[in-house]
Each structure stands twice: as structure tokens, then as C-alpha cells.
């Protein structure tokens, strides 16, 4: 999902438009959760 939102944001920016605020908020949430999982996995190994 994180990549889907990132792509949507990139398309809007590339077109000179503002990205949908929902997409930005969702990307931030998914990105934060993904980073937390990656850090937890690194600590566990």
C-alpha cells in the first residue's frame, strides 16, 4: 500500500498538482508502520 500512495503522490507532483491530503496522510502512516516493523525485525535477528 505504501508504494501505491507514493505513486499517487508522485503523479500529482509531476503533473504540477497538489497531492490528495488523504494520500499523503495514508503514506505517512504506512511508511511509519513499515519502518517500525523493519526496525523490530532488525533487533530480533
Report on the architecture of this protein.
This protein has one domain (2-44). It is built from two helices and no strands. It has helices at residues 2-14, 21-44. Helix 1 (2-14) packs across helix 2 (21-44). It is elongated and about 45 Å long. The mean pLDDT is 95.
> Judging from the principal axes of the Cα atoms, what is the shape?
elongated
Q: CA-to-CA gap between the ends?
A: 25 Å
How much of the sequence lies in strands comes to under 5%
H/E series: HH
Q: How many H/I helical runs? A: 2
Brief overview:
With 45 residues, this protein is an all-alpha fold. The chain has helices at residues 2-14, 21-44. It has 2 helices and no strands.
Key descriptive features of the protein:
45 residues; 2 helices; elongated
Topology record:
Elements lengths: L1 H13 L6 H24 L1
Helix pairs in contact: 1-2
Amino acid at each position: 500500500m505504501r508504494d501505491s500512495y507514493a505513486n499517487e503522490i508522485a503523479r500529482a507532483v509531476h503533473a504540477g498538482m497538489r497531492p490528495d491530503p488523504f494520500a499523503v496522510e495514508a503514506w505517512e502512516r504506512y511508511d511509519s508502520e513499515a519502518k517500525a516493523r523493519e526496525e523490530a525485525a532488525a533487533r530480533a535477528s
